[in-house]
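Re: the pair you flagged

First of the two:
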Amino acid sequence: MTDSILRQDIIDELEFDPRFDGEHIGVAVDKNVVSLTGHVNSYAEKVAAITAARRVKGVQAIAENIEVRYPFQKQAADDQIAKRAADILNWDILIPNGAVDVLVQDGWVTLSGNVDWYYNKTAAEDDVRKLSGVRGVTNKITIKPRIEAANVKAKIESALKRHAEVEAKAIRVTVQGGNKVVLEGKVDNWDERRAVENAAWSAAGVASVEDRLTIT
């Protein structure tokens, strides 16, 4: 696939997705590496635009410089954003009560703290990025499992075999230090890469995952 064809496919996908207005997003492609520029009306729209670009077959990497420009009437003070973030985190049953700290500066939210599972960490970021006024999120939440890791490699490999969208034979799984998982091999697209990562994170006791997978 040529860069020009891939660029047009991405533009078509951005225009097709109803979650944001792709009219103000610029797309450039160089050897299957995609650069996204322009602006959107919220951080949630920015994330959706990046996700849409990743869906397109042939995309190997993305460099983004999309700016979040909130309409004036929707701008919120940092203390308002912090209060809303704290409230939504407290309401979310997927996040342990009091486990996540919130810091907001110029609309940019930094999350920190310790949780047991990766899904706790991602749930916190998913909650906050939807809030009005948020311009970006830095997720510094640390995974500190209370469960001791056991048979991690075998459990992950079994999980990969169960996934219909994953070619398990192309994936190499190694475990370092008992709770760090290293993923190597080739996948066909971003969705398959994410599925492999999720399988690794779902094994009890995993504290970190190093993704060395390449997209063919």
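Second of the two:
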Amino acid sequence: MTDSKTILDAAQAKMQKAIEHLDEALLAVRAGKASTNVLNGVMVEYYGNPSPISAVASITVPDARTVLVQPWEKNMIAPIEKAILVANLGLTPSNNGEHIRLTIPALTEERRKQLVKQIKTDAETARVSLRNARRDAVEAFKKAQKDGMPEDMAKDGEAEAQKLTDKFNKKLDDLLNAKEQEIMTV
């Protein structure tokens, strides 16, 4: 027989993963301000192996609209520049032979609205994951009840699963609202 703590811990772990995934997705959305996160996930060929840019260069933000990529090896400038272009980030790299400069353009009102729509879609995906985790927990409690768990204990467990879902939904809403605020602030 499974105890309620095990079921709730599993549900909480799934919900935490959904929130972390959303947080990473939101970090990748650029809100008109320069951030080193804009290059997360961009891979560059380094001696035949795909490597993240951060593994072959230092990435800094010297001002609010610029990301500076300084390769540790001069011969990496061209492959990094190519990787940035291929990643289709909407940024045009310019290099001076020493480093690559990415200028973050100011966002138009239309682009801001598109980004808000995109983050709301990401948030909805995370919300579905939260609901799925709750559903799995509730099903686990029903199965445990059939296997001999007292009914009141199973009902309490289902209520706890709902409380967990509410708590994580609040975290999700807070993340979404903060990012939406950041995008819509000119």
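The radius of gyration is 22 Å.

-B.
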